[in-house]
Design a protein that fits this description.
Keywords: ATP-binding, Nucleotide-binding, Transport
GO molecular function: ATP binding; ATP hydrolysis activity
Strand order of the largest sheet: 6-7-8-3-9-10
Shape: globular
Protein name: Spermidine/putrescine ABC transporter ATP-binding protein
CATH architecture of the largest domain: 3-Layer(aba) Sandwich
Radius of gyration: 18 Å
InterPro entries: AAA+_ATPase, ABC_transporter-like_ATP-bd, ABC_transporter-like_CS, ABC_transporter_ATP-bind, P-loop_NTPase
Pfam families: ABC_tran
CATH superfamily of the largest domain: P-loop containing nucleotide triphosphate hydrolases
Order of helices and strands: EEEHEEEHHHHEHEHEEHHH
Distance between the termini: 37 Å
Oligomer: single chain
Structural class: alpha/beta
Length: 256
C-alpha cells in the first residue's frame, strides 16, 4: 500500500441557497519520500484537498490514509506550512520553533537541541532570542519550516509557502526546502499556482481541472530535472518544454 492514499474523495460546500461541488472522485497515491505538487486554476479545490489530507475537513465521501492510518482529524504525523508564517510576535524565535514540541508534550532537552541545530542548518544562527519582527520574510518562513519539522512529522503539507516572498528569496528557499526534505527523508505535498516552482521542486505534478475539481493529468518530472537542485533545474532545456506543455493545459481551463 502507498504511503499516502486518497481514495474517491468527494467534497461539497453547502450554503443556505446552494451546494458547490469542490472535489469530485479524487484518487491518488504518493510514495514515501516523494515531493508532489498540485497545480490548477483558482477554485479547483487544491487547498480543500490539502485540508482534507490534513484532517481539517471531513470529506462528504472518500478516505485518506497515511502510513496505514486513516486520517479523520489533525494528527502529529502531519505537518502543515502555510503562505503566512503565523509566528507569534510576542514570542522569541526559540519559543516559536519549539511551540509544537511543547503542545504535544515532547519539549525535552534533546528535542530542543535538535530544533536549535536545525535553525542553524537553515542559516538562522544566533536568532533564538530575537522576535519575528526582527527577521526578514524569508527568515521567518525558514523559522516556520523549522517549527513544522521540529515535531518530526511523516508528511509535510505546503500551501503556497513562498508566494509572498520576493523572487530571489523564493528561489533560495526552494533549494533549501527541497534539500532539507531530502536530507530528512520527508514526503511533501505542495499547493502552488507557480508552474515553474512545481516543476523545479517536484517528482510528480497533479494538474486539476476546475469546477468541480478533478485530477486531469499527472506529470512525472524527467529524471534529469529531479536530480538537479530547483535553481539549476529551471535552466535545463527539459524545463522549458514541460513548462509550455503545462501552461497550455492550464490556459485551456481558464478559457473554457
Amino acid at each position: 500500500m502507498s504511503f499516502l492514499s486518497v481514495e474517491h474523495v468527494h467534497h461539497v460546500y453547502f450554503s443556505k441557497d446552494s451546494a458547490t461541488v469542490a472535489l469530485e472522485d479524487v484518487k491518488l497515491n504518493v510514495e514515501e519520500g516523494e515531493f508532489i505538487s498540485f497545480l490548477g486554476p483558482s477554485g479547483c479545490g487544491k487547498t480543500t484537498l490539502l485540508s482534507i489530507i490534513a484532517g481539517l475537513i471531513k470529506p462528504v465521501e472518500g478516505t485518506v490514509t497515511i502510513a496505514n492510518k486513516i486520517i479523520t482529524k489533525p494528527d502529529s504525523i502531519i505537518g502543515y506550512m502555510l503562505q503566512q508564517d503565523y509566528l507569534f510576535p510576542w514570542k522569541t524565535i526559540e519559543e516559536n520553533v519549539t511551540l509544537g514540541l511543547k503542545v504535544i508534550g515532547q519539549k525535552t532537552t534533546e528535542n530542543k537541541q535538535k530544533t536549535l541545530a536545525l535553525l542553524k542548518e537553515m542559516g538562522l544562527e544566533n536568532v533564538e532570542n530575537q522576535y519575528p519582527s526582527q527577521l526578514s520574510g524569508g527568515m521567518r518562513q525558514r523559522a516556520a519550516l523549522v517549527r513544522t519539522l521540529a515535531t518530526n512529522p511523516k508528511i509535510l503539507l505546503l500551501d503556497e509557502p513562498f508566494s509572498a516572498l520576493d523572487y530571489q528569496t523564493k528561489l533560495r528557499l526552494e533549494d533549501l526546502v527541497v534539500q532539507t526534505l531530502k536530507d530528512y527523508k520527508k514526503t511533501a505535498l505542495l499547493v502552488t499556482h507557480d508552474i515553474g516552482e512545481a516543476i523545479a521542486m517536484s517528482d510528480r505534478i497533479y494538474v486539476f481541472s476546475a469546477k468541480p475539481g478533478r485530477i486531469n493529468r499527472t506529470y512525472l518530472i524527467p529524471k534529469e530535472l529531479r536530480e538537479l537542485a530547483p535553481f539549476y533545474a529551471r535552466q535545463h532545456p527539459s524545463f522549458s518544454k514541460l513548462f509550455q506543455q503545462i501552461w497550455k493545459e492550464l490556459d485551456q481551463f481558464e478559457t473554457e
